[in-house]
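lol forgot to send this yesterday, sorry. struct tokens for the thing we talked abt
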């Protein structure tokens, strides 16, 4: 057998497990699809009630209703392989007395005893059963079901199941294979299907992509939008293909369009890969669960010029049945937040304990803040400076934390001139929620962090960042009339003061602010009252009221403006500074903003660049 044929055999066998495991993508990974017309399918009879209440083990004996697609592939020892995929029919049964699954198609059948489960191929998401006879290998991969609902990025399924049955036959001249992908389960009664309303389902896509010389596993995700009144179903998303080593090979888009048959739980339509205008493949499925909570479909697609065939399954769960995040103090599912902030970079020379500005002015840092289900925590990423630091209890400094702030400490290793040094990292996060005595925020907050210095180094970089983050108000939810007043606090930093000894660190800026916004005119005005604190002496200096004003577009959730007084700032020049903000919450209940301005140094004279963030909430 040639290497090409062997690649086909090993890829098919190994990719079976990948194709049946959980997909990615999630509800936030794709835009809302554009509906496309599809033919109305032939109505199916009202289903017989299922013997199983759900698919969570243990199961009772049952022949399951299903939708299936079948693919064939041949990898000859010499020459290019061939592959096709199309809609098909099969029978899938579980027999409790013999504890085995049975699968049969028009020209073949196979039994899989539960005792034939392959522990090496199986995992937390998947049971894989293997039966070998001579040069033939049959494999059945069954996705596990769970009573837990999961999350939008990782939905679990209680009533809808997915499986792939594969038969591979190898000899000296070729490897041939068949693959049947199907969804099955406890279907929704036709009488329980809604006659009106809409729903969004998050989708988990899995399958196999067969090429002329190999087969790749694929997995992905997306969304499905359903209009029960019209019977229309549209969806799209993306997927990636993976090689036998688990490495990602390629990424593409998928599109689905179908129509629910009148008086039925079944739908049928088209499935396309690459672009919506490409020739369509098959897409057939039905709703599962007592209240149409889930759906399952089998899909197939062949490239227009031939040579490649795709097939697989799609499971979906109603987004309304899944957990969602509340305020920032009640996070449960993955969420990426809008961010804005300011950064100062300077150098400490240890022998003289002197400071020097590395960059002459403050800058806007490339920072992300998100909540991760995996770590059950916020995760901050400032790329090379602070790389994906999970703010977990493991690094929380309980002694330094209080009712207003959580403090986290960790280290980062940097190597210069072949010498590795541990840079200390301290991150402070303003606690969201009603219990914060400083300010009680629900949809926005801020964090500050410093990286360095390392006193043992002759010169050590110091990076200080202040970042506001939050859940922005959708433009469509912005008020278009009336006005609101907001009370806010500020947090900021400065450039290095110019002193004779050069031993003074940059000031810390705190204070309060107020903002008024006219939603009908999209105009804002406000005042900021900053206070500069000397970090070494603790001396506080009130810098006076700084007025600002700005505007936006009616209905837009962002705004910008500048300060009333013009200043000439060392390292910047003459400017009115800037303020750039974003409303947060379902209806602009809060806001967060980045500001950049100047100050007169209360100790040394001259001017300094100061900047930071502002977070606030409505007072009326």
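and heres what i got for the seq, position by position
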């Amino acid at each position: 057998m040639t290497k090409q044929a062997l690649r086909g055999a090993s890829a098919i066998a190994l990719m079976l497990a990948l194709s049946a495991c959980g997909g990615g993508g999630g509800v936030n990974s794709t835009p809302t699809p554009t509906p496309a017309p599809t033919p109305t399918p032939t109505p199916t009879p009202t289903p017989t009630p299922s013997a199983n209440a759900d698919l969570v083990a243990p199961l009772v004996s049952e022949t399951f209703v299903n939708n299936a697609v079948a693919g064939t592939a041949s990898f000859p020892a010499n020459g290019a392989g061939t592959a096709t995929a199309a809609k098909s029919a099969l029978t899938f049964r579980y027999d409790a007395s013999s504890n085995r699954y049975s699968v049969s198609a028009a020209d073949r059948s196979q039994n899989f005893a539960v005792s034939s489960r392959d522990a090496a191929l199986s995992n937390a998401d998947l049971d894989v059963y293997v039966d070998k006879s001579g040069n033939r290998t049959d494999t059945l991969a069954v996705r596990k079901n769970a009573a837990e609902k999961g999350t939008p990025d990782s939905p679990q399924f209680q009533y809808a199941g997915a499986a792939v049955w594969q038969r591979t036959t190898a000899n000296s001249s070729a490897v041939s294979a068949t693959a049947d992908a199907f969804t099955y389960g406890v279907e929704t009664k036709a009488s329980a299907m809604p006659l009106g309303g809409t729903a969004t389902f998050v989708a988990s896509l899995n399958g196999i992509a067969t090429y002329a010389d190999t087969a790749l596993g694929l997995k992905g995700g997306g969304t499905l939008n359903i209009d029960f009144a019209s019977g229309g179903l549209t969806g799209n998303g993306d997927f990636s293909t993976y090689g036998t080593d688990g490495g990602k090979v390629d990424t593409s888009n998928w599109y689905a369009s179908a129509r629910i048959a009148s008086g039925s739980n079944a739908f049928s339509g088209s499935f396309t890969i690459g672009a919506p205008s490409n020739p369509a493949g098959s897409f057939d499925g039905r709703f599962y669960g007592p209240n149409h909570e889930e759906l399952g479909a089998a899909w197939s697609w062949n490239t227009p010029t031939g040579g490649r065939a795709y097939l697989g399954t799609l499971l979906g769960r109603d987004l309304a049945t899944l957990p969602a995040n509340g305020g920032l103090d009640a996070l449960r599912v993955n969420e990426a937040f809008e961010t804005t902030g300011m950064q100062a970079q300077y150098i400490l020379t240890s022998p003289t304990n002197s400071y020097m500005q590395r960059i002459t002015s403050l800058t806007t840092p490339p920072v992300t803040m998100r909540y991760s289900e995996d770590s059950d925590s916020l995760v901050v990423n400032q790329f090379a400076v602070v790389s994906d630091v999970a703010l977990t209890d493991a690094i929380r400094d309980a002694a330094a934390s209080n009712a207003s702030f959580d403090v986290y400490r960790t280290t980062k290793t940097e190597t210069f001139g072949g010498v590795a040094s541990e840079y200390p990292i301290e991150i402070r996060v303003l606690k969201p929620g009603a219990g914060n005595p400083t300010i009680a925020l629900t949809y926005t907050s801020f964090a500050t962090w410093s990286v360095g210095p390392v006193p043992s180094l002759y010169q050590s970089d110091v990076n200080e960042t202040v970042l506001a983050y939050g859940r922005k108000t959708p433009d469509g939810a912005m008020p278009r009339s009336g006005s609101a007043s907001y009370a806010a606090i500020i947090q900021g930093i400065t450039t290095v003061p110019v002193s004779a000894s050069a031993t003074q660190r940059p000031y810390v800026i705190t204070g309060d602010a107020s903002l008024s916004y006219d939603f009908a005119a999209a105009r804002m005005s406000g005042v900021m009252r900053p206070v500069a604190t000397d970090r070494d002496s603790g001396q506080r200096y009130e810098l006076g009221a700084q007025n600002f004003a700005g505007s936006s577009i009616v209905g837009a959730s962002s705004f910008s403006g500048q300060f009333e007084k013009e200043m000439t700032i060392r390292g910047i020049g003459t400017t009115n500074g800037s303020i750039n903000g974003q409303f947060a919450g379902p209806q602009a209940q809060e806001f967060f903003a980045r500001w950049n301005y100047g100050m007169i140094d209360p100790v040394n004279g001259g001017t300094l660049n100061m900047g930071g963030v502002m977070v606030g909430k409505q007072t009326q």
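The two ends are 78 Å apart (CA to CA). anyway ping me if u want another try
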